[in-house]
Design a protein that fits this description.
The complex is a heteropentamer of chains A (513), B (108), C (318), D (103) and E (105). Chain A is mainly α and 513 residues long. Chain A has 20 helices and two strands. Chain A is 72% helix and 2% strand. Helix content of chain B is 86%, strand content 0%. The chains are: A mainly alpha (513), B mainly alpha (108), C mainly alpha (318), D mainly alpha (103), E mainly alpha (105). Chain D: Its main location: membrane.
Chain lengths: 513, 108, 318, 103, 105
């Protein structure tokens, strides 16, 4: 059966791409209550497709690949899924399922109406976002990826201002301008690469760039594309759009945006520097990217400490956590990290980075949804006034707490494993300064989460008045997602070999902790 | 210098101009226009690349692949402008303001 | 210096001049008008670059439809916002100027240093075009070789429609889009809106049809059709349809849905997703193009018509 | 000089002429003046394209002229139709514009 | 092609070009918006009309010729409508708020 999966792998890729698109169109036409039903019905199928792709990649021990329309690149466009793509597809599906289940209560068509605005928009946009993310994770052609990025922009922006308040409209507008600037710079880079090498296919580009002396166009293109994608990823100092956008959106939408949307552009940065650009150039860029990442970790952490509202705190925490992702670059690209070939397949910074992607996605989605439950129950999310919420909503707070544990990097969570691997890699290649950043970031995370938890768990004062009872099943969804982010840390590292399939990544071998 | 190079330089200048406008101009409408300038500079550069590719082989004409991509890009840019304008008009309806910065300040 | 180069130099200077104007103009309307003129000139540049397909798209979308979109907001900005407000600080401007100049300079250098001979896919397209039965290589790329981009792009338009509709103000959902509510107009506009669309519709269909062999295609045809529809709406001859209408939604997804269906069928009929069986390639492509033209026209028209609004919003809001 | 050269020369002449008119965009003073310049550019562009299309015997350029004519007309109509609407009233909470400074 | 037709083309197109020149001069030199508008609409419609007329003998019939006539019709129609609407707009208040003549705040 598994070998059937591998053989049908190319069709699985196509299915992953078109399933959400087809569902979206059906939901758009039928509308009303059908939109929700179609979206919910798509969730398990999409999850199954993602699992099947991961299984096929793992079992075949090779990336899946298909030429669309039967036209091979450079004329045609290919789709490809390697281990990292498979992991991202899987993470996306898991978060989608959780958010979909969570959002049912918030986005129902009110009785007596056939269709209303917010539910229609939310359920179609959920599918739209899924389609866009899958397109990003499967794309192998730089222009195809541009279209995927734009799909993502169009799906993400309206989610920000679903509630229609003026602040969220402003936040969405600002997000849109940043996102558009990002895409257009990316497109410019892709155009220059085509002008220099005559192909947009990532594999072919890598071969042509690696084979010749570097064209000046490639250098400028890489800079432009990275700059554009950084604006979309909200890396410090182009992060300004993120907090109001992510904090202003409804909880379910915030979860999607913070957990998944910003990861897509990061994923493309990874692909550009590891799959397209030659290693030498990547090493130079790595220090710059990691320095910005370090600044983001510290800056995001400090600002998170100063927020008055819970959702804003979580949004600033996203900025800090994104910073960690950029520490991958110097730790994987450095020649010292891979002195021996046999160490290459051992888990290292690459695995750590991938784990950070996944565990942050789960943890952050859980936190935003927990914050949403708290805000809905209390009618506000002012941190100062959260006193006693631990008694009123123990399960929600527990979920928030263990998700936070993963963000902080406390063992035995997925976040711990991610940061531990990054720490070890930093130590082994002698770049100790990144270790300091990782540790300082962990302390800051601990501090801002302590602020929330200490208030919430305080036993002084009266029990808070709940304006709305909390729905137990929604708490379970949040808890489930939070648990996943923790349990990732308990899975033996050897089972993460999937992450390395399809790429000759120089990872450092470290002893299993 | 050939005409193609000339248009290439024009595209480069437009990208710079659009970028400048996007950063500096007050008011969302003007930034949206600047974004369109920037986009058209990018398309022009891509068109120059296409023209060079067409000229080499066939003697005349233009490489059809970038042309197709530019057409796709133009439609996407229009859709993006429409969404931006829609957001701006709603913001205007709700607050009478035409920029996000001002809104941010009123939050504080 | 050849005559052609002098003309192109003039064109370049005009374009740059208008570009500077749209950034520097004090009045918003003035900037938008400058942008419309700019778009017209860019369409001419595309002709000079031997890219008539792009020129058609630019003329229809880049200048015409975008112009209307921008005007729609420029004329609604409050009086205070129409004049330049206190400019951004000198430091920011210097920094932005430096950054922009660096980017422009880098790009200029790249333009001058692009490899010679230029890499190109033109021969590859020419060699494979017969398999599609098409005569226009650009359409071949759009609908066959890179069909996935075109499919996803037509889906982008659906996303954009959802996005714009989702901005409906309170009580607006299910109603008609509100931007193009016609003011009482003189007979001149009504006459124009009666006489121009028949010509425009013919042109739109012609562009779609000719796109198989000559410059044109679904996007250009759809854009012209959309413009005619919007003209009729501005003149009050047609009302924008309510967003809850099933037929409207079907029309919006008809193109991408058909494209997708044929693409899926291709898995079994031609061995790959989005592949066409050679014997039926051209008729299939024409049917897809027809549906796309319709959907694109509907989507572009509705993007110009804005989010749905409750009819009473007309009195409350600008 | 054959007829194609003459047509090309005429195209360049018309284009150069209407381009001169674009200085109205700079000078204004009203937006109607600016729109007139854009409209003249549109008509001139259409004329130049027709001349070019016939001179080079490319039907597609004539099609382009047709599209340009349709859409230029459309833009001008839209401008004027839009402009005749009443000004939106300033929103009350925006009542002290003098105090505005940008951050 | 007969000499007479070629001559006709040359003359009509030259005249058309001159009308464009006249329109531009009018747009630049006339004192106020309304007079500029009147000069302009007449000049460019006539200019384009003459150029179309001059091109008619040079194209294939019927498609090429009909296209040329369609272009002229479109421009004529639009020009007349827009001219009328612009004149109305120039007279009304609606646009005064957007002239440069208004003193800055």
């Amino acid at each position: 059966m598994l070998s059937n999966l591998v053989a049908g792998g190319d069709r699985l890729l196509v299915l992953a791409l078109i399933l959400p698109v087809a569902s979206l169109m059906l939901a758009f036409v039928l509308g009303g209550r059908h939109a929700e039903r179609i979206a919910l019905a798509t969730l398990p199928i999409g999850l199954a497709v993602a699992v099947a792709i991961a299984a096929a990649v793992l079992h075949g021990d090779a990336p899946l690949h298909t030429d669309l329309g039967g036209w091979a690149p450079p004329l045609g466009v290919a789709l490809r899924a390697d281990g990292l793509s498979a992991i991202m597809l899987l993470t996306t599906a898991v978060v989608m399922v959780a958010v979909g289940l969570f959002a049912r209560a918030d986005f129902q068509v009110p009785p007596g109406t056939t269709e209303s605005r917010a539910p229609f928009a939310f359920w179609t946009l959920l599918l739209a976002l899924w389609a866009a993310l899958n397109a990003v994770f499967l794309g192998e052609d730089l222009f195809n990826l541009y279209v995927a990025l734009e799909l993502l922009t169009f799906a993400a922006i309206p989610l920000v201002c679903l509630d229609g308040r003026a602040q969220t409209l402003a936040a969405a507008l600002r997000y849109l301008v940043f996102a558009l600037l990002g895409s257009v710079l990316y497109l410019l880079g892709a155009a220059l690469l085509y002008g220099a090498y005559g192909t947009l296919d990532i594999g072919q580009l890598a071969a042509r760039i690696g084979g010749d002396p570097l064209e000046p166009a490639a250098l400028i293109a890489a800079a432009l594309m990275t700059a554009g994608l950084l604006a979309k990823t909200a890396l410090f100092p182009v992060h300004l759009w993120l907090p109001p956008a992510h904090a202003g959106a409804p909880a379910a939408a915030s979860a999607l945006l913070s957990a998944l949307a910003v990861k897509a552009s990061f994923f493309l940065i990874l692909r550009i520097w590891f799959d397209v650009m030659p290693e030498l150039l990547a090493q130079m860029a790595a220090q710059v990217l990691a320095a910005l990442g370090a600044a983001a970790i510290l800056f995001g952490g400090v600002l998170a400490l100063r927020q008055a509202r819970l959702k804003m705190l979580i949004a600033y925490s996203t900025i800090a956590q994104i910073g960690y992702l950029f520490l991958i670059f110097p730790l994987v690209a450095s020649p010292e990290t891979a002195p021996l070939a046999e160490l290459r397949n051992a888990p290292g910074a690459w695995t750590g980075g991938a784990l950070q992607l996944v565990s942050h996605a789960c943890a952050k989605a859980a936190m935003f949804m927990a914050a949403g439950l708290i805000a809905a129950s209390l009618g506000h999310d002012r941190i100062r006034d959260l006193g006693g919420i631990g008694r009123a909503l123990p399960m929600t707070l527990f979920a928030f707490g263990i998700a936070g544990m993963s963000l902080m990097g406390l063992p035995p969570s997925g976040g711990f494993m991610a940061k531990w691997l990054l720490l070890l890699a930093a130590m082994q290649c002698g770049q100790w300064w990144w270790m300091l950043v990782i540790l300082a970031g962990g302390l800051l995370t601990g501090a801002y989460l302590y602020r929330v938890l200490a208030t919430a768990l305080s036993t002084q004062g009266p029990s808070p008045v709940l304006v709305k009872p909390v729905d137990r099943s929604r708490e379970w969804v949040v808890l489930g997602l939070a648990l996943i982010s923790v349990l990732l840390g308990l899975v033996p590292l050897s089972s993460f070999s999937l992450i390395q399939i399809g790429r000759d990544v120089s990872g450092i071998g470290v002893g299993l902790p | 210098m050939s005409s193609v190079t000339l248009f290439g330089l024009c595209g480069a200048a437009l990208v710079g101009l659009g970028l400048y406008g996007l950063i500096v101009l007050p008011g969302a409408l003007r930034r949206i226009i600047a974004f369109n300038l920037l986009g058209s500079g990018v398309f022009l550069l891509f068109g120059v690349i296409a023209r060079r590719g067409g000229g080499v082989i066939a003697g005349t004409g233009s490489d059809p692949v970038p042309q197709a991509l530019i057409i796709t890009g133009l439609v996407v840019a229009f859709a993006a402008t429409a969404l931006a304008v829609a957001l701006l008009r709603r913001l205007l309806q709700e607050t009478g303001r035409d920029d996000w910065d001002e809104d941010e300040r009123s939050d504080r | 210096m050849s005559a052609a180069l002098i003309v192109d130099l003039g064109l370049t200077l005009l374009i740059l001049g208008l570009g500077v104007w749209t950034v520097a103009a004090r009045s918003n309307n003035g900037a938008v008008v400058g942008y419309i003129a700019y778009g017209l000139l860019v369409a001419l540049v595309w002709v000079r670059l031997a890219a008539v397909d792009v020129a058609l798209t630019e003329a229809a979308i880049g200048s015409g439809l975008t112009g209307l979109l921008l005007l729609g907001v420029a004329t609604r900005l409050p009086r205070s916002a129409r004049l330049t407000r206190p400019p951004t600080g000198l430091g920011t401007r210097l920094l932005a100027g430096f950054l922009s100049a660096a980017v422009a300079g880098g790009l200029a250098a790249v333009v001058l240093l692009l490899p010679d001979p230029a890499p190109t896919l033109a021969p590859s397209v020419a060699a494979n075009l017969p398999a599609t039965g098409l005569g226009n290589p650009v359409t071949g790329v759009l609908i066959a070789f890179r069909a996935i981009d075109t499919l996803l792009e037509s889906v982008v338009l659906v996303f954009a429609i959802i996005g714009v509709w989702s901005l409906a103000p309170k009580d607006g959902w299910g109603e008609r889009p509100g931007w193009l509510r016609p003011a009482p107009l003189g007979s001149a506009l009504t006459l124009l809106a009666q006489l121009l669309p028949p010509i425009g519709i013919l042109v739109g269909i012609h562009l779609f049809w000719t796109g198989a062999t000559a410059p044109g295609g679904a996007f250009q045809g759809g854009a012209v059709l959309a413009a005619m529809w919007v003209l009729a709406m501005i003149a009050g001859l047609a009302r924008p349809p309510a967003v809850s209408r099933r037929w409207l939604r079907l029309m919006l997804v008809a193109g991408p849905a058909l494209f997708l269906t044929v693409g899926i069928a291709g898995i079994w009929l031609a061995g790959a997703f989005l592949a066409y069986p050679v014997a039926y390639a051209k008729p299939l492509i024409l049917v897809i193009e027809a549906a796309l033209t319709l959907s694109i026209a509907a989507a572009l028209g509705l993007l110009l018509a804005g989010p749905p609004e409750h009819p009473s919003a007309a009195e409350r809001q600008p | 000089m054959d007829i194609a050269d003459f047509l090309l020369a005429a195209a360049v002449f018309v284009l150069a002429t209407v381009a001169l008119g674009l200085t109205r965009i700079l000078r204004g003073p009203s937006d109607v003046d600016r729109m007139m310049a854009a409209q003249l550019l549109g008509t001139g562009g259409v004329a130049a394209l027709l001349l070019l299309g016939v001179a080079t015997d490319m039907n597609a350029i004539t099609d382009l002229a047709l599209v340009l004519a349709l859409l230029a007309a459309f833009a001008s109509v839209a401008l004027v139709a839009d402009a005749r609407r009443p000004e939106p009233e300033p929103v009350p909470d925006d009542a002290h514009p003098e105090g505005k400074t940008r951050t | 092609m007969t000499l007479a037709l070629t001559l006709f083309t040359l003359i009509a197109i030259s005249l058309g070009a001159i009308f464009f020149l006249a329109g531009t001069v009018g747009l630049l030199r006339f004192p106020d918006t309304l007079t500029r508008l009147h000069a302009l609409t007449k000049a460019d419609n006539l200019g384009l009309g003459l150029i179309v007329l001059g091109l008619l003998p040079q194209v294939d019939w019927p498609v090429g010729g009909l296209k040329l006539i369609a272009v002229w019709l479109v421009v004529l129609l639009a020009g007349a409508t827009v001219g009328q609407l612009m004149a109305k707009a120039a007279r009304s208040d609606a646009w005064n708020g957007s002239t440069d003549l208004e003193p800055p705040r």
